[in-house]
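Explain this fold:

***
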Amino acid sequence: MVVIRSLSSNSFKQLKICIFAQNFQIHMITVNNLSLQYGKRVLFDEVNVKFTAGNCYGVIGANGSGKSTFLKILSGEIESTTGNIDITPGERMSVLKQNHFEFDEMSVIDTVMMGNKRLYNIMKEKDALYAKEDFSDADGHRVGELEAEFAEMDGWNAESDAAEMLSNLGVKEEQHYKLMKELPSSDKIKVLLVQALFGNPDILILDEPTNDLDVHTISWLEDFLADFKNTVIVVSHDRHFLDMVCTHIVDIDFSKINLFTGNYTFWYETSQLLLKQRADKNKKNETKKAELLDFIARFSANASKSKQATSRKKALEKLDIEQIKPSSRKYPGLFFKQSREAGDMILDVSNVSYKMQDGTPLFKDVTFTVNKGDKIAFISKEGLIVSNFFKILAGEQKSVTGKIDWGVTITKSYVPNDNAAYFQNAELNLVDWLRQYSSEKDETFIRGFLGRMLFSGEESLKKCTVLSGGEKVRCMMSKTMLEEANFLILDEPTNHLDLESITALNNGLIEYQGTIVFTSHDHTFTQTIANRIIELTPNGMLDKLMSYDEYLSDPKVKEQRTELYGMPV
């Protein structure tokens, strides 16, 4: 019996906290005074942040800011220069593997169950002991210990749970006992995702989990994470995904890490509002505060659109506006103009078909008319289909059959998925590279234009052969802006871009008054730009005047897609 004699009010509170902590352990991962330095470059400087159970943290930052590196430090793959990571004792961390060949010699089902290493090791040790011919008393005692732990971990349901998750993601039952190396790459990615999610980990670390996933698998993952009760830390360039699952945003900005309540859109719109308020020096602080409170209230009221609605709404309601700070992030200036407005005749496509060199049809009988101001998203289960069709539109490839008629007033600008051919001249720096596409040759003008795309000072003198993927795409967008075309052909323009550049490009294309045909895996990008969806398949096409979300949810469209593909979609 424990006797509690006169305790002060404060002491009693502390006692209650201790009792609560013992019975209901507060799960968290704490980053203390973390720094990471490579030579003279400081990637992180005295970072302090806490991640708690029940929340999903989206890590954002410009390309090269250290998002993936930060996840590797949290998982223990990389050691920091100073500081430490504290994880609640006994917590299991699961990390989405990036090496798609690591488990090639293992079966699919074993690969998944390896996500819970302790459970998998128990299974293997049990099997080895049961297989012994000279089974001893000591072996029996050890088996008993293992069986008890196995039962405690719900091990008897592990294989069926793994199989169910695989099937939910479209990995067929007949594939479950195949070796990983026998699977197509698209299914390998799904298996590694299931591995990370398997066994209800306490901490889940996901680096770009939506890469190369189809929209239906992404939707399944969104639902899974919305119901997940533990801690999730995720890096993603997919704004729709971040909006649907995140309760907090972790912003890596100039070696500092700041934690914000809310999803990506809330973080972005709040930052934009605060920057606007900062610029308006005449507005009183009381007015600014009221404006910010009104914005938070409106955003909180709309939180029901998100799968993390309940937890986020509660968090937003408790938000202390004094803690909200504007981001110092820079956004490129992307503004697309037309040198001349298009006439009424834009584009007629009649019975266009294309086959691979081996005779395999990619698409057939593609027929449609483009109307003035159309912004058409082209989609397909195979990206190769749309890429080849865009090459035909751009005049870089000939179709097998059919006819393409352009209006006499149309000027085109094409941004291919593979832009390597544009950056092969090692003699050219960025100023000289961009000058090729500009009627204005003055260096000051070109440098100013590059500055809008975040190539300032010495950056503008980089050789075009040493650019990163994101830098090349920004250069291609500079070229497109200079061309001032009234018809844009964009093949995965968001690839390699950071969130800031994607957002700027998204906004620029919404404002653009010309006609666009494009394809993109970015859900938000497609939903906010397209007024029309065309899906190309080897067996025909669908052409619908609706938004992307309407297209995905329409039951009649689903029936038609199933018929075209010859399987459920």
Residues 98-201 form one domain. The first helix runs from residue 9 to 23. The mean pLDDT is 88.
